[in-house]
Q: What sequence folds into this?
């Protein structure tokens, strides 16, 4: 994990250092939200400063970025146009390529092209033309296996899936990348279904939903499997609900143990250190009551947290370079959608970064949560992200936690449990 974080930080600093000219520089280029506008600026740059034939690698970071951007857009023709210029992808660009493949597979966008792209990436990894270093090879293998299953190449799919499980970097089980385990289980279900192993697929996904190793994309896969096993879709919604209810109630009981019964408006939030040595790590310092704090939103408007008195308030602290922070957002968005604004309010509070950087990131990712900023990290002195704090309607801290829950569904159940427990125990 330390190696992974170091690679991400180094890559981020490389972005900031590259500046071919005063007018055109890579940092500004990556801040452009739409790939169409990025391509327009790239072509303008080429016209003003053509590639030197003696330096074929000139501007390759731009071409890699454009390949990544077009893939995320689902434009395979433009992806291959830039990919075939053989640019070197840095660690962040490679990570984004794998995220794009995740999204394209989940949306069932042209399985044939997704298979070709994922196969090409695997070939580049095999020859050394592309470096991983962050533990995403396994995910690309899973996607290639599942798309081969969709295309009828069952034997190849089974071989690839088995080979993916030979990778022992632990990233599938680690709560770091969004839905790493649940994505695998969904793809496993797709391959087993194609191979005619319907009961195996049914049992696997039943267990996944029951244990909250699940996400919304898995529902459609499970529906097909259920119909094949049962001979009908009748009863599917009821069965799925029973599995989800079981997962939620289990999560509720676990979260309930974390409730802070004694009212506290200030608190040093401590959690056990990851090493399991029994020591505690101070995650944040809440030295002032939350109602005394005011933070700007992404438009610069100051938001006074005292205005949210009489509501359950959640603050989640994050940064754009924190992969597990962003992984949790899809679960948060579902909780926000469940409640009216007069009952619950959530803010995700960006740390350490300027407004322009965060605003661009939010637009690119399509984040719908309410974002505030504490660029200097002066209000809670947060020592690790993601960190979440839940306040009751009187401003008392009732829960705090760190890390990503590992799946969209589990993150949803966890936060929803915190809100429901806080609501039920509030004596207003």
A:
């Amino acid at each position: 994990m330390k190696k992974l974080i170091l690679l991400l930080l180094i890559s981020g600093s490389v972005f900031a250092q590259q500046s071919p000219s005063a007018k055109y520089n890579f940092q500004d280029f990556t801040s452009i939200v739409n790939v169409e506008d990025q391509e327009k600026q790239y072509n303008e740059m080429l016209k003003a400063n053509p590639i030197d034939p003696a330096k074929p690698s000139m501007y390759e970071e731009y071409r890699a970025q454009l390949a990544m951007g077009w893939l995320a857009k689902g434009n395979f023709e433009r992806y291959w146009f830039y990919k075939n210029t053989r640019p070197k992808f840095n660690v962040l660009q490679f990570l984004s390529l794998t995220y794009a493949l995740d999204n394209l597979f989940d949306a069932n966008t042209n399985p044939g092209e997704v298979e070709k792209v994922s196969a090409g990436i695997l070939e580049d990894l095999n020859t050394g033309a592309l470096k991983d270093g962050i533990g995403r090879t396994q995910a690309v293998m899973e996607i290639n296996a599942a798309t081969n299953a969709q295309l009828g190449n069952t034997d190849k799919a089974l071989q690839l899936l088995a080979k993916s499980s030979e990778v022992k970097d632990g990233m599938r089980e680690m709560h770091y990348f969004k839905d790493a385990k649940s994505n695998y289980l969904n793809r496993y279900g797709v391959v087993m279904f194609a191979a005619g192993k319907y009961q195996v697929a049914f049992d696997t996904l039943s267990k996944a939903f029951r244990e909250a190793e699940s996400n919304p994309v898995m529902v459609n896969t499970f529906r097909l499997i259920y119909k094949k096993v049962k001979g009908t879709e009748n009863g599917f919604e009821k069965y799925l609900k029973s599995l989800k209810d079981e997962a939620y109630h289990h999560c509720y009981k676990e979260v309930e143990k974390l409730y802070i019964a004694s009212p506290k408006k200030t608190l040093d939030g401590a959690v056990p250190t990851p090493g399991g040595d029994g020591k505690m790590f101070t995650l944040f310092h809440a030295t002032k009551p939350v109602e005394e704090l005011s933070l700007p939103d992404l438009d610069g408007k100051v938001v006074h947290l005292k205005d949210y008195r009489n509501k359950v308030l959640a603050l989640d602290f994050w940064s754009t370079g924190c992969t597990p922070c962003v992984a949790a957002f899809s679960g948060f968005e579902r909780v926000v959608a469940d409640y009216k604004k007069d009952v619950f309010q959530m803010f995700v509070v960006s740390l350490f970064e300027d407004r322009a950087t965060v605003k661009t990131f939010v637009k690119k990712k399509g984040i719908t949560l309410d974002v505030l900023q504490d660029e200097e990290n002066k209000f809670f002195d947060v020592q690790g992200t993601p960190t979440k704090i839940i306040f009751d309607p009187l401003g008392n801290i009732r829960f705090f936690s760190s890390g990503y829950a590992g799946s969209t569904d589990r993150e949803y159940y966890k936060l929803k449990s915190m809100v429901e427990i806080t609501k039920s125990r509030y004596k207003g």
Q: What stands out?
A: Residues 1-21 have pLDDT under 50 and may be disordered. The chain has two domains: 2-252, 258-425.
